[in-house]
Amino acid sequence: MFDEPFRWMEAISTRHSYVQEKLVMGFAAQPGKIFEVYDRIALGSLGHPADVERLRMTLLDMAHVEGFNRSDKDVTIARLLQFGIAPAMKQNFEEVMRAPYLVKLLFAEIDFNNKPLFFRLNYDGHWEMFKKGAVISGNDKESEWIQKQIEQTDFASLSLKQALKEACRLWEEGKKQSSPESEDADEQPTTLAEAFDRWTLEAAVLSTETERKALYRVVAPDEIEPLKSAAK
Hints:
CATH topology: Glutamine Phosphoribosylpyrophosphate, subunit 1, domain 1
Largest sheet: 5 strands, antiparallel
Strand content: 15-25%
Number of helices: 7
CATH architecture: 4-Layer Sandwich
CATH class: Alpha Beta
Strand order of the largest sheet: 1-2-3-4-5
Shape: globular
Distance between the termini: 56 Å
Radius of gyration: 18 Å
Number of domains: 1
Order of helices and strands: HEEHHEEEHHHEEH
């Protein structure tokens, strides 16, 4: 059926459109989209909960096998992506008779020089690295605008409270930058007040100030509460 190149290209284009439409429409807001992958690695996700969980478990297994067989310093996002999950996602996407992953993943890492690195992985296996921060969204225009703002913002100089406040501001301003791309997108919150009313904000940090080996820490509800109060 797909022996002719143009038929395969048409099928791939259709899959891109299908996945992007699903991500724009969004999924039910469920807690549990931010995770610890390894001591210095955190994962954020967007998409179908079942696909997110499947990839999370794959990453956990890969990270711990790598750490056991080699060393903790060999467990990096770049290695996990380049030699593991990214090729598998690309192969899955290009096998047009299989269901594609309906996900976008965001990674944060503190390297052993205590420098932050950020990575964005697309549903087709394409990944990018950023130094100042990164964003994932079902709306590409929104994502592009927020990414530009992140590059212009010195988050490293901000306190946690200030960083959370600025991240929320960018999210709300990003919603104003483009019109909804589907009728279902109209149902998505466009202000912080609406978002806090319907969703549960999740946040986590990789803190170098701890003496623990694992740097991952979930942001406590009392640290998020001021954001909810300010949004009303």
